[in-house]
Amino acid sequence: MARKRSRIRDIVKWLIYRRAHGYKIVYVDRSRDGQVFFKEAPLDRITSVDSWAIHLDAGETTIPFHRIVEIRDEAGFPVWSRWQKKE
After folding, report:
1. Residue 71 pLDDT
2. How many domains, in total, are found in the chain?
3. How many CA atoms lie within 13 A of 16 on its CB side?
4. How far is CA 21 from the centre of its chain?
5. Which CA distances in Å does 83 have to 17, 35, 44, 45, 58?
6. In this predicted model, what pLDDT tens digit does every residue of 51-81 receive, in sequence order?
7. pTM for the structure as a whole
8. Which of 63, 74, 66 is nearest to 24 (CA)?
9. Which range of residues forms the domain containing residue 19?
10. SS3 for the chain, per residue?
11. CA 45 – CA 29 distance, rounded (Å)
């Protein structure tokens, strides 16, 4: 059985191809004491995209796709959200 392609991966790759400056990825991050909080990373920091994650700043930070919760445009409005109502 073939795996379903990741929609978030396709969107990120499309935005990189389009050179969408000012866009940000919002993702879930966890501290060592177990607290959960959100971080933002500009799309310009993405150095590579593979089948399960994106890599920032030459591989220093890896963000798995399941932790990405939103993509925002240059004005801060969400263009994709994990919580969007599906049509």
Report:
1. 92
2. 1
3. 18
4. 14
5. 25, 21, 24, 24, 30
6. 899 999 866 889 999 999 999 999 999 988 8
7. 0.79
8. 74
9. 7-81
10. CCCCCCHHHHHHHHHHHHCCCCCEEEEEEECCCCCEEEEEEEHHHEEEECCCEEEECCCCEEEEHHHEEEEECCCCCEEEECCCCCC
11. 17
Domain assignment of residue 2, yes or no: no
C-alpha to C-alpha distances, 66 to 18, 22, 37, 81, 85, nearest whole angstrom: 23, 22, 15, 12, 18
**Do the domain assignments include residue 1?**
no
Query: Does the residue 64 lie in any domain?
Result: yes
Distance separating the N- and C-terminal Cα atoms of the chain: 26
- Check: CB of residue 26 under 8 Å from CB of residue 69: yes
Supply the pLDDT for residue 1: 45
| 68 is a domain residue | yes
